[in-house]
Amino acid sequence: MSTGPEDAQQADTDRVLTVPNVISLIRLLLVPVVGYLILTGEYVPAFVVLVVAGVSDWLDGVIARRFHQTSKLGKLLDPMADRLFIFVTLVGLCVQGVVPWWLLIATATKDLLVTACLPFMFRRGYPGFPVHVAGKSGTFALMYAFPLLLLAQVPGVVGEVAFVLGWASAIWGVFLYWCAGAIYLHQFWQVMTGAVDRGSVPPNPSVAA
Predict the structure, then answer these.
(1) Where is 11: in which H helix or E strand?
(2) Which residues cross the membrane (predicted)?
């Protein structure tokens, strides 16, 4: 029986208690923390929490790949944590008047449309949408933008620079977010019209970014 790296990685796919999964769970626990800090006007601590969450997001991916600890649970927890951070942070920033509500509507609408497609995909035997680089890049840009927009509330040159960079990242992130949404909706249309077969879908389910 082979015990090469590929077999080791495959053996890890059903594991629950892994270091990356623990990191993702900790990140999920930080979601209400950052929401509370933003709503109470504690922008600098909220900035620190978002930076820690961003670093942990990068770290759990590195560990999962380096030590073959990828898992089905991890593939669900990681994007779930990203979505919750984006949603909760945006709601807090909108309530505080830091960003306009259209930014929340623009990101939430894309997620709702893609999520609404999933039950129809499941019924046809598809595990979901393969994660696209546009979606991952858009999510990264938004996660990068929010700490900067929080830092923009600090008076002085630091706040002004953070404001410009934060909005540049936010606009670019929304654009990429919707590029990914268009790709996923096109894939959904292909599935519903029978333009693709099940063999073209990756065997492991993933949540579209």
Answers:
(1) helix 5-11
(2) 16-38, 44-63, 84-109, 129-151, 163-185
